[in-house]
Design goal:
By secondary structure, this protein is mainly alpha-helical. 48% of the residues lie in helices and 6% in strands. Strands 1-2 form a two-stranded antiparallel ribbon.
Length: 127
C-alpha cells in the first residue's frame, strides 16, 4: 500500500480483490457453549424443564400464557399485601419490580387480545 497523492490511500496493484472462495460458509460454523449461562438451542435449554410434552395447539399455548400472566399478577398482589401489613419482610424495590412486571404483562395481554379481535373482525367483514 502506497500513499501516492493527496486523494487518499491508493494501492500499487489497483484495488484489492475479495474472492467469495475465501469465505467460510455459515453452515460449516460449529459453535459450542461451555458456560451454562449461554443461550441453548434445542431441548437442552432452560425452557425444556417447563414443557411437559408436545403442545396441543394454539389453545394450549394461549392457556399457558394466560396462566403465566395470572401468576405474575398474583405474585405482585402478594408482595404488595406483604409490604402493607409487614413492611420489614419485603424490599420496596422487589414490590415495584413485581408491580411493573404485572402491569407490563397485563398491558401486553390486552394489546394482543385487542389485535386478535380486530383481526377477526376484519377477516369476517365482507367488503
Amino acid at each position: 500500500m502506497n500513499i501516492q497523492s493527496e486523494r487518499g490511500v491508493q494501492f500499487s496493484g489497483g484495488m484489492p480483490q475479495f474472492r467469495p472462495s475465501n469465505r467460510v460458509p455459515l453452515g460449516d460454523a460449529k459453535l459450542t457453549t461451555q458456560d451454562p449461562r449461554h443461550m441453548q438451542i434445542g431441548p437442552q435449554g432452560p425452557e425444556s424443564a417447563r414443557s411437559t410434552g408436545p403442545a396441543k395447539g394454539f389453545a394450549d399455548m394461549l392457556s399457558r400464557a394466560l396462566e403465566d400472566v395470572e401468576s405474575v399478577d398474583s405474585r405482585s398482589r402478594d408482595l404488595t399485601t406483604k409490604a402493607i401489613y409487614d413492611p420489614d419482610s419485603v424490599e420496596v424495590h422487589d414490590v415495584m419490580i413485581a408491580a411493573e412486571k404485572s402491569r407490563f404483562a397485563l398491558t401486553l395481554t390486552k394489546t394482543v387480545a385487542d389485535g386478535l379481535v380486530r383481526t377477526f373482525r376484519e377477516l369476517t367483514q365482507p367488503r
